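Running this now, will post back.
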Amino acid sequence: MEKAIVLGATGGTGQVIVSELLSRNIPVIAFGRSENKLKNLIKEHHSTPLLTYQLGDVFDAQTISEAAKDADVIFQCANVQYHEMADKLLLLGESVMKAANISGKKIVIVDGIYVYGRQIAKGDENHPKLPHTKKGKLRVDFENLIFDKKWKNAKPLIVRLPDYYGKTSQNSYLQPTLTGMAANKIAVFIGNLKTPREYVYLPDAAKMIVEIASKDDSYGENWNIPGAGLISGKEIIKIARQITGNNKLVIPLNKLAIRISGLFDPVMKEVVEIMYLTEETFILNGEKYEKRIGKIPATPYQEGLKETLRCLMKT
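Update: finished.
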């Protein structure tokens, strides 16, 4: 990989991918709509000449194509809000794929696990895609768009993450819990506190994503980005209390509580249908990565949570 462009570079996954690429001395173009955020990102990396930015809209394929002309890999980390997904997700897919197709670029699409629906077996990349939610079905349409044969010149791949956490995380389900506890406040936890769940530490995810993107034979496929094993909400809170010293109440929010919140918040309204992922265990199988790429980086939860919470306590 000679040079990369990261769409949605100031978002949760975008920031860690930028950092990982820079750690490998790969020049990066950060692409986004907010000049202030992009300039702050550059300051965070000590204004290294390896990092530049381009202003633009991910729904404008021509602008992306022009910004990416000197890059050989596009990392698509931009996303749309839950309540805008039905109207905008496929438009986003069409735009980024058209941009990659114009100039024959490799493109890495960062996505989630809604396409699978409920787990039938440990989820490898061939797990049946049987979504029972509107968002899951839409994500299947999104995948079909990404791999559509009409893109003669683009070379796409999709990486799939479970829920995640880390200092750059912005919209994950664990974020309200960690930000509340870091601020020494009463916090909330979305879902069942007893359900063992898989989370991926974002810096680990970035390492895996960049490794996959660096291999020519990775393209045209789906790839799992697994976490560091299963952990319950109770265990997370126990670790967070030890790190922060915050022993205040953490309130679990079940589907009814989210439904009520949705009466006042359009985003929370859209969370209801995918609450099954917070109540049931879904595990991503990483055997394909191990066989084709190498050892899976898996920061222990104690260590990842310590780093995340310490950063949050400084803000």
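The CA atoms of residues 220 and 249 lie 47 Å apart. More later if anyone needs it.
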